[in-house]
Amino acid sequence: MTGMSGAAATRDGEAPEHSPPCSPSYDVTGKNKVVTVDGVRVKLQIWDTAGQERFRSVTHAYYRDAQALLLLYDITNKSSFDNIRAWLTEIHEYAQRDVVIMLLGNKADVSSERVIRSEDGEILAREYGVPFMETSAKTGMNVELAFLAIAKELKSRALWQPDGPHFQIRDFVESQKKQPSCCSFL
Ligand SMILES: Nc1nc2c(ncn2[C@@H]2O[C@H](COP(=O)(O)OP(=O)(O)OP(=O)(O)O)[C@@H](O)[C@H]2O)c(=O)[nH]1
User: Fold this and answer.
1) How far is the CA of 1 from the centre of ligand 1 (A)?
2) Which of 32, 45, 89, 124 has the fewest Cβ atoms within 10 angstroms?
């Protein structure tokens, strides 16, 4: 999966306030995920874009109401990485100003075909002030962590108090993320 996925959170059992409209370009089925954060079940309603090639035709309504956006590139595909800047420009223009953004470099299991270094993802993420990690949908590396971090951030915002502790999503991701096992070809 490359491109963008959006998420909106509710406490489990509540109906989401906003849903993306129906379109053949988006998979809006079967993507609800419940994450338990400190005893609170947070339901994430997740939807995907169909792939980076079609990002220009994305209907902005799909992510206008998203509370979180996961931007995925494929570490074996340079154009998917190059498209991330265009996604970020779109987000800046059309998404909610306080949307939670996370950058993910997927397919970290196929190190032999890697063309994007982990540092390149880190540099891009730092430039935009967003958390970053590499993932593998195949092995599951860091996948649960990505959803957990989003759920924690959204729960923290929902329960925000001026004097309360503030969850720092970037620190959390940095402290928890696993690095891909390195590097049989080096
Ligand atoms: N090895 C490996 N393969 C993956 C991983 N994630 C996805 N794939 C494979 O990559 C291919 C494309 O995955 P998709 O999820 O369809 O990617 P997409 O960018 O959403 O593609 P479109 O929806 O067709 O635009 C599939 O064959 C997946 O099995 C991963 O982390 N590791």
Assistant:
1) 5
2) 89
ipTM above 0.85, yes or no: yes
How many domains does the chain divide into?
A: 1
Which residue's CA is minimally distant from atom 16 of ligand 1? 1
Does residue 183 form part of some domain? no
* Tens-place pLDDT, residues 139-170: 999 999 999 999 999 999 988 888 888 899 99
In this structure, which residue's CA is closest to atom 20 in ligand 1? 1
CA distance 153 to 146: 11
Q: Which residues does ligand 1 sit against, CB inside 6 Å?
A: 1-3, 50-51, 106-107, 109-110, 136-138
DSSP 4: E
* 5 touches 46 (CB < 8 A): yes
CATH of the domain at 21: 3.40.50.300
Which range marks the domain in which residue 18 is found?
3-178
Residues 185 and 169: beta-carbon distance below 8 Å: no
- Atom number, ligand 1, closest to the C-alpha of residue 3: 19
